[in-house]
């Protein structure tokens, strides 16, 4: 295991005590892309900050590539690359200088640093903007520079906090590609996100985290399988009184693995049976069916099943 | 995206260097980066360093002595009369002390509060393979270099601008060097303390609340010995580190009365320890959660 977290807790003391991380265990295998998926305030950033030695845990241990990161922060940083939630590029230096000096900080000689900078600028398609300053870059480009800089010292693990926050769809896809390429290089990636598509697309394994606890952890496929359904029908009804009754009826149908009341209707988890949709519609019709949403079962479904809440709430 | 491996760097990074080598290189790297940025911003740096002593010398030691009927307004004449040597001579060490202290504020406190408040660049610097305290230490050391340059710039100005020549004479080079280095480090530590203790939104206030008072009550424009008629002030100003900077330079550079030299060195060391400790503590609290 390249990243091993045991019994991690972080309590922020202040006017109001906040338990940001509440007993987290993580094991990340070398070479995988590992995702922490959770809503705002779940404790993702805090977990990553502890792993990257920026925050001291209240309890628990972190080992990165075998080194105790809490006891030896300075040394363990050699194995860690970090891209935080916000832009931390050195405003006084150009893009290539940002990477070059980063290499110097990590003990490269000047010649090595120069060679590594050239190579990274090339790898991340930054060749045209080498002399630009960070303030002149678009969000997507700045993100790419940050990733290039973070891996410049050849860390074993790269931590990305909300890498696609604020990126347009095109930059997001470019970022995904860059992250996949890192895996080819043998760099383990741990990222946080609250986009389930991102966790699904990009990650080999995903831990769903809420209120500082890990609820489940598995491959995206296995997590989606765990709900026992391929389709989710969201029924929105006018007649709210009879929602529980309808849910009970639908739950008995062949092909329905679960039917549960929601605020204004019923959520039906279905594993493909022919003609089920027609039956569901027929049953719901008398209650004033306003609207119907059909989606593939996703990590979002898993999250809702676990917490009763939407990821976005 | 293909990866061309670099055999040289691969080799050096396979062999894990010792802890102190890693720290040393990271520290040197930070220093080189700061030097590089300073070199590029040489022009604004020089302006910042020259302006204050230049104007001060110009107004008080050139314009004033030339004013018609200016004897009453002329500090040079009054100082000479009260036996404190001419005013240019009093000003030389004082302005050097101010230059040193200003540099500490401008090189550490202002950028640091900017980084804590807005840019968060510091978060990346903190990820260097170096204990966080040493990153703060690098800021102090680099700022002291700027302070020494700033102090050196005062010298030619004080030589050419005043209408009455400055009576400067170095009696002991080692003492001068010790004062210069200690004062510059104290200034960096003061900058670190202010930069980490003051809320970034209020950093503008420190000029009024801290910098001005410690300058005017820092024996910059008058020698400490000249305060003998006002014991309350004479002993009150002793809590001000600038006093030891200006008196130290005064003792090292100019003839005339000044504080005892061991006291100066001792107090500079004391303030260096105190402010470094306060600054480091503040820095740690700011960057490590
Ligand atoms: N420095 C701090 N002091 C006090 N409380 C904090 C601090 N940092 C975070 N918290 C609290 O800890 C909890 C977890 O925060 P964290 O930033 O880890 O969440 P997150 O999962 O990264 O959320 P987001 O998706 O918004 O980035 C939140 O309730 C937050 O208010
Ligand atoms: Mg976060």
From TrEMBL, chain A:
Keywords: ATP-binding, Nodulation, Nucleotide-binding, Transport. The keyword Transport applies. Gene3D superfamilies: P-loop containing nucleotide triphosphate hydrolases. It comes from the Bacteria. One of its GO terms (molecular function) is ATP binding. Residues 3-236 form the ABC transporter domain. Belongs to the ABC transporter superfamily. PANTHER family: ABC TRANSPORTER ATP-BINDING PROTEIN, ABC TRANSPORTER ATP-BINDING PROTEIN NATA. This is ABC-2 type transport system ATP-binding protein.
UniProtKB/TrEMBL annotation, chain B:
This is ABC-2 type transport system permease protein. GO terms for molecular function: ABC-type transporter activity. The lineage of its organism: Bacteria, Pseudomonadati, Acidobacteriota, Terriglobia, Terriglobales. Residues 44-286 form the ABC transmembrane type-2 domain. InterPro entries: ABC-2_transport_permease (IPR052522), ABC2_TM_bact-type (IPR047817), ABC_2_transport (IPR000412). Keywords: Membrane, Transmembrane, Transmembrane helix. The chain crosses the membrane at residues 45-64, 90-112, 140-161, 173-198, 205-224, 263-284. GO terms for cellular component: ATP-binding cassette (ABC) transporter complex. The keyword Glycoprotein does not apply.
